[in-house]
Write a structure and sequence with these properties.
This protein is an alpha/beta fold and 440 residues long. It has 19 helices and 8 strands. The protein binds iron/sulfur cluster (SF4).
Length: 440
């Protein structure tokens, strides 16, 4: 997902966000805490998928490590392509998730970008237990299974329905029950009893983090936008790996205050903003900087994305949620939040969601990233761009690339395609957009 140690892309005429220094500090604290726990054997370490049940793990006293975050670091530091072939050589196909293949390859080569970012850290933290949720894809289960065999640590998880239209009480009951059934295994590893009070506390911190992160992203609805997608990919770090902690809450209060001030002063992320785009699909981690600079040159701001929005969990509730009018239960609220995510839903729901984003963020066009090794987070392969264009008149472009495997990405072709797309937008409307007509 996101990398904590890269410098923010310094797009032309873009201003640095001051809160970045604080974010780097707390992310460093996160990794040093994990490293210390591994070396001392306390507290225990749980690996978790990026939209897995992190709240339960924290409530049970684990420190939580997210391998997808490490995958994104490998991508952003542009070393993934050194490692992907290593994983391919032991049978992990070039067609599957390149987070998985870069991460497994780096492990086999005994390398990690953590060492360079955080002196004294020599390796990824060894897991005491690995916990997945297939709500995003099946690759995470296979990824964790590799490490479960390597470290001889238990692998447990949740199977979530995919392509979900309406979220029903049957969906919620199924996932909530699976989450509860993890508890005995987790108690065995952590040596700590499940405590509902602790669970409600962590959930309320996660909820607060989520609300603040949503407000941060919504500052981009201002004209001009004080925040871009590229900033979002940097600043989402704490929402991914530290949700459920006070540090993450404090950080987003700081960031939000800065962005609200920027919006009041009409300070834009992209100087002279003329167009506003929506990014669908995975980031291209190794190309954030050149893409950010390209859009700045074109005076075009990528103001919103499904990717950054994926760590907004509206349904979290410390009081709990109800599956079908019964007692309030924190597991129901967690189950709902982790099923309602964009990546879990049917195309019809996804299209409705994108339509709302187009209006809210006054979007002129959509970029669909067709990510070679992640079909799960690629939405351009079954006619969605065409349907949205037909129904809403919204122009789109599909760019081919990959989250980590830069051999699948042509910088020249992408640049030419984006320049032509923005030029085409230029003939559509003056700036600022007419917000009374659905934002375009
Ligand atoms: S959603 Fe895509 S990028 Fe994320 S772990 Fe699954 S296959 Fe990899």
């Amino acid at each position: 997902m996101k990398t904590p140690n890269q410098s923010p892309p310094s797009g032309l005429s873009r201003k640095e966000i001051k809160a970045t220094a604080q974010m780097k500090k707390i992310m460093a604290g996160h990794f040093y805490e994990l490293d210390k726990a591994m070396k001392s054997g306390h507290p225990k370490i749980a690996w978790c998928t990026s939209v897995g049940p992190a709240e339960l793990l924290r409530a049970m006293g684990f420190l939580v490590y997210f391998p997808e975050n490490h995958g994104a670091m490998l991508g952003a530091t542009r070393i993934s392509t050194d490692f992907i072939p290593v994983a391919n050589s032991i049978g992990y196909s070039p067609e599957i998730c390149s987070y998985l293949t870069s991460d497994v390859g780096a492990y086999l080569k005994k390398q990690t970008p953590l060492s360079k970012a955080y002196p004294g850290i020599d390796s990824i933290p060894r897991p005491d237990v690995l916990v997945y949720n297939t709500n995003q894809c099946r690759d995470v289960q296979d990824w964790f299974a590799f490490y479960s065999r390597e470290f001889k640590a238990p692998l447990i998880g949740i199977q979530t329905h995919r392509g979900v239209g309406e979220v029903t009480s049957a969906h919620i009951r199924s996932v909530a029950e699976q989450m509860k059934s993890l508890i005995p295994n987790l108690e065995k590893v952590s040596g700590k009893r499940y405590d509902e009070k602790e669970m409600r506390l962590v959930l309320s911190l996660s909820k607060e983090c989520s609300i603040l992160w949503k407000k941060v992203l919504e500052t981009a609805a201002a004209l001009p936008s004080p925040l871009s997608f590229f900033d979002g990919t940097i600043h989402m770090g704490p929402a991914v790996v530290m949700r459920g902690t006070q540090e993450a809450v404090d950080y987003y209060k700081l960031l939000l205050a800065e962005l609200e001030e920027r919006a009041r002063n009409k300070e834009s992320a992209v100087e002279g903003e003329r167009f506003r785009l929506y990014w669908d699909g995975m980031p291209i981690w190794g190309k954030l900087r050149p893409l950010s600079e390209l859009f700045s040159t074109l005076k075009t701001s990528v103001v919103a994305s499904t990717y950054c929005n994926s760590w907004i969990f509206d349904a979290f509730s410390a009081e709990g949620g109800s599956a079908s009018g019964g007692n309030l239960d924190p597991f129901n609220s967690m189950a709902r939040a982790y099923i309602e995510l964009f990546i879990v839903r049917s195309d019809e729901r996804k299209e409705k969601y994108i339509e709302e984003m187009i209006t809210k963020f006054k979007i002129d066009g959509i970029i669909f990233h067709d990510s070679k090794s992640c079909s799960n987070n690629t939405n351009s392969r079954y006619g969605m761009p065409q349907r949205l264009q037909e129904r809403l008149g919204i122009p789109y472009i599909v760019i081919s690339g990959d989250l980590n495997d830069l051999r699948c990405y042509s910088e020249e072709q992408t640049r030419t395609a984006i320049e032509a797309f923005v030029e085409q937008l230029g003939s559509r409307r003056p700036y600022p957009p007419d917000v009374t007509s659905g934002g375009r």
